[in-house]
Write a structure and sequence with these properties.
Shape: globular
Radius of gyration: 15 Å
Pfam family, one: DUF386
CATH class: Mainly Beta
CATH superfamily: YhcH/YjgK/YiaL
Strand content: over 45%
Protein name: DUF386 domain-containing protein
Number of domains: 1
Helix content: 10-25%
């Protein structure tokens, strides 16, 4: 997991060959004015979703304590305040249901090991080893989730 501000995103271009293109797209947008919806950035290699939804309680979010096998998430907070629960996948032992290859998601019946906060202009990179429960907070949260194919 990597947590930082968009101002520092250049530091992470070397982590994955598609990160430079993904961050260039993010930084070229007027995020506050972007409409909710799905955006194709580079075929199915980089896709984004922008959405505005009511925040969840930690208990609600932890019901879908998730991780992905085929994609890395770059989650950018646009407005609101958000907390995300996190735990290393290697520490998770209780799988909840089966892996869904269509949605590239696995769920765990676990509790996060820690929670961290995000402010607008920050992003988190979540790798397949990062089990996470996002959207925890109060009020509405607007964010962009960019899926980068591994």
């Amino acid at each position: 997991m990597i947590l930082d501000t968009l101002e520092n995103s250049r530091k992470y271009h070397c982590v994955h060959p598609l990160f430079e293109k993904a961050f260039a797209y993010i930084k070229a947008q007027n995020l506050e004015a972007m409409a909710d919806g799905k955006y194709e950035i580079d075929g199915d290699s980089i896709v984004a979703a922008v959405f505005t939804k009511p925040a969840k309680t930690a208990e609600e979010s932890n019901e879908k304590f998730e991780c992905h096998d085929q994609h890395i998430d770059i989650q950018v907070l646009i407005s609101g305040e958000e907390q995300i629960g996190w735990k290393p996948r290697a520490s998770c032992k209780q799988v909840k249901g089966e892996y869904n290859p269509e949605k590239d998601v696995s769920f765990y019946a676990e509790d996060p090991e820690m929670y961290f906060g995000m402010q607008p202009g920050q992003f988190v990179i979540l790798f397949p080893a990062d089990v996470h429960s996002p959207m925890i907070g109060k009020g509405d949260i607007k964010k962009m989730v960019v899926k980068v194919k591994i």
